[in-house]
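[audit] Reproducing an earlier prediction to check determinism. Same input, same settings, fresh worker. If the tokens differ from the archived copy the diff job will pick it up downstream; this log only records the rerun itself.
[audit] input (158 residues):
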Amino acid sequence: MIEALQTGLLLPDWQTFSAMPASPVVAAAPRARIKPVNRNQTMMRVVDGEQLIEEDPPARAIWSFVGKLDLGPFEEPIEAVEGVAGRPVWNRQLLVSLWIYAYSRGIGSAREIARRCGFDPAFQWLTGLEQINYHTLSDFRVAHDQLSKSCSSVRWEY
């Protein structure tokens, strides 16, 4: 290769490497320091549940409305009672509010509601940042099918 360069086979104007014009030495500009995006990073954040949504959105109105209803019929089948071993059940105001809010948004799937409880601020506000299993939501809707029939026929406007 060196002989080819010296004989001019590759560079006919140059007889030797010493005859090559000297290139000016240019200092390379320093590379910009850019913070990478790391979506695999796990973090703990302090979140104020009350600040997830504004003061006057539909989720708050639905929560307030459901809180004024007589939820006794929804609590009759509950077997978990205080003073006896067993896991507490989800607040009935919460379950009714979740379903009404979901229906008002055109959502009729328990899996979709459970999924949205993980990222949608209104659903997170309703649940107090708790994650509710889709099976719990589905069981509640099946047990109280009159609620779903009533809510699905309502035209929701805000």
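[audit] rerun output stored. Observation attached for the diff report: Helices lie at 2-7, 58-67, 72-75, 92-104, 110-116, 121-127, 134-143, 145-152.
[audit] end
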